[in-house]
Design a protein that fits this description.
2 copies of one chain form a homodimer. Chain A is α+β, with helices and mostly antiparallel strands. Chain A contains 9 helices and 4 strands.
Chain lengths: 242, 242
């Protein structure tokens, strides 16, 4: 199966959670919007799919994945589908539901991270909602990041199979996503994370462990890994990391 | 199977999506935090579960569901689990993923509805974030509600099995959730919805159809259905519906 990922071509964003799973599995995939328009790909291909009246089950927004005839939207839903196929989810139903539940909690965190710089409207520039952003970011760094990190650290500590992985005794897409969350928060809120991470040694170790996996390390060193930047979900504005 | 639902006892909130599915199916369930403390239930029972260090797979926040030994968090994840068991999800994997995807998009809408009155911090009162709320709500009513309603109307219009249900030719939990979304938006933003709903006849009809289902109608008329109020996710503040 050759998968087709449709996501904005210039940011990691929510698409990165899918990319990491596909990369770790060594899956064959096209990152459609990043491929040349002359080959029928690029942004026009993404917009064609997004705006088509023909799609019976249309996605609401990127990322979405094409797998054969299936078109799937919603990051956590895509990973629910991919997990077993890529060997990145537990075999049993309870385990799969648990990994999915962790992913949904990370999705909530991602939305809150986005809203630190866009607390009023996604359609406005950051500079046009900066006073609101300052207040929202203060709550995010002071209350919400500690709550989320404390939760995931405690999940690792409670894992009866040890704290090498967030669920069970094997890598799942939730580990890859947790790596991305830590990386993103460190990029966007370096001061906050420098203060917080010493209190979360298991999360720190998990981030390191994932980064060193051969396929992930190769991906991170490649041009396929877009850098963090000020268009993505995790953005660094010094004043929001006070 | 007698399910135990754990959710805040005084609001519909995210728990209502689970309640509607359990009610439609005529499932046996305890709404734990709304039952008497003298029977070991009530808020203390909810907090005990939420704060326990013993839970191997702890939920991040209510709602969560206890089903035998299983404890499940995240509204959309709970419905993913319950759907097939309550006869409220398609039989095939593609159908189930589609219904789940719709639920995840509704979850995004619910978060945005919440953030109209709490754009800065959930821990602050509305009155302490009112200027921010006014700006965020203007975007929500002017841009986001139309986008979400347009999406779901178009999904109904495209359903090859007709527009009686949001997916396929049978009721799913996504129909119940869509009913709740329309009801909640109408409560919170009556002026906006009065303007918008005539342009979305399929959604309007679906809302009516669900409300008239015998078990849902009985539930809505019962004391088990909490009224909308100013503590829940859908809140009516006249100034936010301008």
């Amino acid at each position: 199966m050759r998968y087709e990922l449709y996501y904005w071509p210039t940011i990691q964003g929510r698409g990165e959670f899918i990319r990491l799973a596909l990369e770790e599995a060594g899956a064959e995939y096209l990152d459609v919007a990043r491929l040349p328009e002359r080959d029928g790909m690029g942004m026009p291909a993404l917009l064609r799919m997004l705006e088509s009246d023909e799609t019976i089950r249309p996605p609401f927004a990127p990322p979405f994945l094409k797998a054969g005839d299936l078109i799937l939207g919603q990051t956590a839903g895509i990973l629910l589908f991919l997990g077993p196929r890529l060997g990145l989810a537990p075999e049993d139903e309870a385990g799969r539901l648990w990994v999915h539940q962790l992913q949904l909690t990370m999705a909530d965190l991602v939305t809150e991270a986005h809203d630190t710089h866009h607390p009023v409207a996604s359609g406005l520039y950051y500079k046009d909602q900066k006073p609101e952003a300052l207040r929202r970011a203060a709550d995010f760094t002071g209350t919400r990041i500690p709550k989320f990190l404390g939760y995931f650290e405690s999940v690792l500590a409670r894992n009866p199979r040890g704290d090498d992985y967030i669920a069970g005794d094997a890598l799942s897409y939730a580990d890859l996503s947790l790596f991305q969350i830590i990386a993103g928060l460190r990029y966007a809120f370096p001061r906050t994370m420098k203060n917080l991470m010493p209190g979360h040694p298991r999360l720190d170790a998990l981030h390191e462990r994932v980064a060193k996996r051969p396929r992930i390390a190769a991906y991170l060193a490649s041009e396929r890994r877009l850098p963090f930047n000020k268009d993505g979900i995790f953005r660094h504005y010094k004043e929001l990391d006070a």
